[in-house]
């Protein structure tokens, strides 16, 4: 989707992974740091390759791969402004009806606030869940994620190195997912939402 938010959340996942590797030490730290640079190298190579492919096929810049990153300033300002209106609408809906308006009702009820046109998603999972199913539902979901992380952390120091690596990788992915859900409604997309629960 060329989501800038997803790319911007990537360093958070790598930071969580590196901190975990530094604490548990399932592999030498120098090796872990070198391995963590690999995603940045791959993303950079993909971006350069996509831009070169676009130039060689003489695509219009707006349709080129990675075009959302190269044409960023005006689009980013517009996107941030629109997201702010969506979030304020979700907060307004929570104030008007704290028990929620019903699951998947943001599409219909979001315009009630007069801040924006009909939009399916609030582009913030927890605010949308709060508007649709009450703030208690949003807090419960966040609490569930925290409880899972804490439960998985029990006894991890005594676990085998392979288990520690799987745990740290999952923890890093969860950190990125939670961060991206703060700027998008990922949990409302079936594949993305179910992936969080599978992890």
Structural class, by secondary structure, is mainly alpha
Tell me the total number of β-strands: 0
Distance between the first and last residues' Cα: 22 Å
| Strand and helix order | HHHHHHHHH
Radius of gyration, whole Å: 20 Å
Describe the structure.
The chain is an all-alpha fold and 199 residues long. Helix content is 70%, strand content 0%. It has nine helices and no strands. Helix 4 packs parallel to helix 6 (125-133). The radius of gyration is 20 Å and the shape is flat.
Draw up the topology in text:
Layout: H1 4-24, H2 29-56, H3 67-70, H4 73-96, H5 106-109, H6 125-133, H7 135-153, H8 161-181, H9 190-198
Helix pairs in contact: 1-2, 1-8, 4-6, 6-7
Entry summary:
The protein is built from 9 helices and no strands. The protein has 199 residues and is mostly helical.
Which key terms come to mind for this protein?
single chain, 199 residues, mainly alpha, 9 helices, 0% strand
């Amino acid at each position: 989707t060329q989501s800038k938010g997803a790319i911007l959340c990537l360093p958070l996942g790598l930071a969580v992974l590196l901190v975990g590797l530094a604490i548990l030490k399932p592999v030498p730290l120098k090796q872990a740091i070198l391995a963590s640079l690999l995603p940045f190298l791959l993303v950079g190579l993909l971006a350069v390759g996509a831009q070169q492919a676009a130039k060689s096929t003489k695509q219009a810049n707006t349709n080129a791969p990675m075009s959302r990153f190269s044409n960023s300033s005006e689009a980013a300002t517009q996107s941030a402004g629109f997201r702010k209106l969506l979030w304020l609408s979700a907060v307004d809906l929570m104030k008007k009806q704290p028990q929620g308006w019903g699951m998947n009702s943001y599409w219909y009820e979001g315009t009630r606030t007069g801040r924006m046109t009909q939009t399916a998603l609030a582009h913030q999972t927890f605010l949308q869940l709060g508007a649709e199913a009450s703030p208690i539902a949003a807090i419960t979901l966040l609490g569930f994620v925290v409880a899972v992380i804490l439960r998985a952390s029990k006894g991890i120091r005594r676990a085998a190195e392979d288990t520690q690596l799987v745990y740290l990788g999952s923890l890093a992915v969860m950190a990125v997912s939670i961060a991206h859900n703060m700027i998008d409604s990922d949990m409302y997309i079936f594949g993305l939402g179910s992936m969080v629960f599978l992890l």
